[in-house]
Amino acid sequence: MKALVKEQAGPGLTLTEVPEPSVGPHDVLIKVLRTGICGTDLHIHAYDGWAQRAVRTPLVPGHEFVGEVVGTGADVAEVAVGDLVSGEGHLVCGTCRNCLAGRRHLCRATVGLGVGRDGAFAEYVSLPASNVWVHRTPVDLDVAAIFDPFGNAVHTALSFPVVGEDVLITGAGPIGIMAAAVVRHAGARNVVVTDVSEPRLELARKVGAGLALDVSARTIEEGQRELGLREGFDVGLEMSGRPEALREMVANMTHGGRIAMLGLPTEEFPVDFARIVTSMLTLKGIYGREMFETWYSMSVLLEGGLDLTPVITGRYSYRDFDDAFAEAAAGTGGKVVLDWTA
To answer: Where is the active site (predicted)?
Structure first.
């Protein structure tokens, strides 16, 4: 089968032929239809410091996908050939304390699809049936391909109640934009999104952000005054991983405010913990999705009319992967999707 492979240490990927993945008794074989390009894939493509530590070559990257089940292992009963599926990219041990308690997203032995094992940038991918989400209702293929990052957005956005609340989102990358759409759909009063990229801020406006703020030109405090907020934001969603973003968020929260942090910093940075203590703020780290409560919420949100199509700004054949990765790396648009049928 054809696959994009990180063949050796160094930048770039190679489109080449590799064997089809094996299928164990508890696994399913999936014919890949679409894949999304994630920030993790960009790290692997560039082979930066993180990738050098995290991956071993050769590797087929990719963990955002939708496909059709074409084969099942002997012990698989809940997934059938012909099902349209996406996949949970965190493969867990199933035996640790958290897994046994049903908190699989907290498994300390998690292995990442497309990072710790071959992934979905290929014509076929194999996954344990327990990691497969079957789409029981119609869904756009491009949207189904980005269920993994959509899940990050939903997990973060719904970590705290948002009905009637004023929400600040720092970072208008694709997940931040999706989070803005989710909290607006879920009943937030004011949704403010910050970034320094005007194209991305425009995407945030399209999905329902009441104020999309270029923080290279205006402050969050100025945005508060424009909206008439007297006490600060109730809920903060930190999506950028930037130290200045978290510091500004902390400074603009109401007393008792709650912050969910998905953005992953590249290095340690100082935080005003005196402000966090005296303002009685709650900080919660988010990584991935809750299996599978978040996935259920995603499907229900789409059934309820949530529209994610504006978030997808690039569509390419897998053969044009170099152009697709270039657009994704530019950091000015939304999600980029590869079509494995074209």
So the answer is: 40 (charge relay system), 43 (charge relay system)
Both 142 and 10 in a single domain? yes
53-69 confidence digits (pLDDT tens): 999 999 999 999 999 99
* CA separation for the pair 320, 119 (Å, rounded): 19
Q: How far apart (Å, rounded) are the C-alpha atoms in residues 140 and 274? A: 47
| 261, β-bridge pairs | 238, 285
Burial class, 187, CB count within 10 angstroms (exposed 0-12 / middle 13-18 / buried 19+): exposed
Are 106 and 165 contained in the same domain? no
Confidence of residue 93 (pLDDT cuts 50, 70, 90): very high
78: tokens are 């809940």
206 in the same domain as 324: no
Q: Which distant-in-sequence residues (6+ apart) come within 8 Å of 107 by Cβ?
A: 90, 92, 93, 96, 98, 99
Residue 95 domain boundaries: 2-146+308-339
Cα separation, 23 vs 75, in Å, equals 11
- The catalytic residue among 14, 26, 35, 40 is 40
* Beta-ladder partners of 85: 67, 134
40 carries an active-site annotation: yes
Q: What is the pLDDT of residue 236?
A: 98
- Total tally of structural domains belonging to the chain: 2
Q: What is the CATH number of the domain that holds 94?
A: 3.90.180.10
Binding-site residues from annotation for NAD(+): 175, 195, 200, 262-264, 286-287
- Is residue 267 scored above 90 in pLDDT? no
Rounded Cα distance, 328 and 331, in Å:
6
Binding positions: 38, 63-64, 93, 96, 99, 107, 175, 195, 200, 262-264, 286-287
Residue 139: how many CB atoms within 10 A of its CB? Answer: 19
Instruction: Determine which one of 43, 90, 105, 185 is catalytic.
Output: 43
- Strands 132-134, 84-87: pairing is antiparallel
Q: 27 exposed, middle or buried (CB, 10 Å; 0-12, 13-18, 19+)?
A: buried
